[in-house]
Structures
1.
Amino acid sequence: MKAPELEKLSSPIPAAAPAASDAGLEALMRTVGRFFQALRLLIVVVLAVSLFGGAFYVKVDQQAMLFRFGKLVIKDGQEILRSGDWYWAWPYPVDEVRKIPAQRSVTLTTRQFAPKLDPNRLENKESAPPPPEDQPLRPGQDGYLLTGDANIMHTVWTLTYRVRDARRYYLAFADNPATATGPGGGPVAKEGVDFLIQCLLEDAAVAEVGAWPVEDVFRPGAAKGGEAGARGVSLNNAVKERVIRALETLDVGIEVQQVSLVEVQPPASVQATFRNVLNAATDRQTEIDKARAYENKVITEAEGRKTKVLSDARAYQTRTVAGIRAAADYFETVLSEYEKNPDTMLVSLHADAVREALGRAEARYVTHVRDGGEQEVRLLLGPEPPRKKTPEAGGQP
């Protein structure tokens, strides 16, 4: 290397170089400072969200349970959080709050036994024509039930329930709201309590409808004939009782409030025939009701006459017995007095007989002879009978 180049390399650094290095370092420090300020702000925001965002309110128609790392937390000595109160929980995944509709009624509908609906009719139910009467039943696609007399019926059922025990309701089964499309075209639950209740409803409907005649299925509010009719159990109540018994066995904390057969119809190809049969059954029931009304009327009138005759007979019996007892008491008294003093009693009885006889006569004549041979006649005349008043010219009597 040449000497001039060595001198150039060994020359001092210009004064501007340190200033540029300080400026870059200061910029880096400012950037780092802003980063830490943003980090502090983020920490503050996270803490604020954790503190205030964890507050939640349990509505009046709800009950809630708090899980911490999957374990049920007991607050105020209770596993179920009270309705209408505020609570606080850590964000997920530390805490998880499960709210359950406790006091609110939930209604499920199953179209499992209804014919599959045409998508065009589903979109426009009002303007779409009804299915033709010659439309055949499609097994495997259309749902249906068999009645006790081997008739095919399409039905739609609804069930209304509410949660009685929130802990059993949630812990017994996973509450998954996933749904699928059923044979009738409506949504059906795939898992959880809703799916369980829907399956129990369908099972109870199959069992009960299979034991009822078609006339009673058409009238779900009426009682089945025979033994069930004597118990007064309707089809709706019979299905409800089956579902209740099944839920009590499973113990899922559910209370069934109502089961209703909201739609019932025969297959489209035989609807006209079923209408004729139903009209005949209705006329038959009408005549039976008229006959029963006439029977009740006749029985009521006969019971009334019977009551009147018995009442008159009892009154006559009472009067007769009372009169005989009074006469017996009188004769016993007279006999006692006669045995004590016969002459006095005979005179008294004679005077009573004469008084009674004269009291019945309107005019009485008394004759007797005095000592001197004179005869005295006394006339005891009754009161003058009242004269009828006749109107005069002035309207006066």
Note: The chain has a mean pLDDT of 75.
2.
Amino acid sequence: MTSRALILGCAGKSLSPEEAAFFRDVQPWGFILFKRNIGTPEEVRALTDALRACLGRTLAPILIDQEGGRVQRMGPPHWPAYPAGGRYGRLNGSATAVARLGARLMAHDLAEVGINVDCAPVLDVPAPGSHDIIGDRAYGTNPDSVAAIARAVAEGLMAGGVLPVMKHIPGHGRAACDSHHGLPVVEASREALAAQDFRPFRALADLPMAMSAHVVFTAIDPERPATQSPTVIRDVIRGAIGFDGLLMTDDLSMHALTGTFRERTERAFAAGIDIGLHCNGAMDEMRAVAEAVPLLAGRAAERAAAALGRLAPTGDGLDVPQARAQFAAALAAA
């Protein structure tokens, strides 16, 4: 059965009969998990198995936001606490090696419970006066350093059999408000954006997946956030940045977007988005989004297949206890 161009959440640590029937009928491309879905490792594995069983696809993508720091859905007591991205940025000469090792260990944690996509790395470059929704999630304030550490994180994830999703393209670092609660409007010039905000994404444009920013860039499209802007997607994300991988929305339920869920979704796909993302597991919202989402076809289907084609079995022989000790020692020494 053809997948729908959609990633959905679920309400709890196990599927209700209503959710299972809905997912079987809708056939989303994949799923995303949040802290509300995380129990013991055994419970998480049972949930990921159940989600894939609904679709009849063993390779179906299951995503999570596992950055470290404030954004870590799987944590103690069952999994380690990982540092926020800003911690790597302060390591100077060892930053990329330690970030790669941390990401490789995260990938081990995720793969063990059936999660094969991590919504990381964060490529946003904070600017003075911006909202702290990015803050210490960023690897630093120098675009080239951010790109180098983000590359290391992506490599560590992929070495562990987990696909990275770079976010939030083409950049959330200048936003003066949290897009979960309002619509950020960035008034920087196209030149300033290209020199700072777009630069890390351009350096990592070969990565398989990216998540859009619910941010208005007045120098490019003063009317619409990037997620719903044909101009931003065509001229900046696909054009100036050169990203030709799978482009997914940030959460369609965030308050940066307005209108009904059908309208939000239709605007994103009309702009050129490949995959819609709805996170909160609310059944009425998911039904409205699903009604507006197309089947995964054409160039979007090719990009989705290419992304999953980069999932590779781990073959680096990682000694997990030794790697955890090495990672802890590197952070302690900094």
Note: The mean pLDDT is 96.
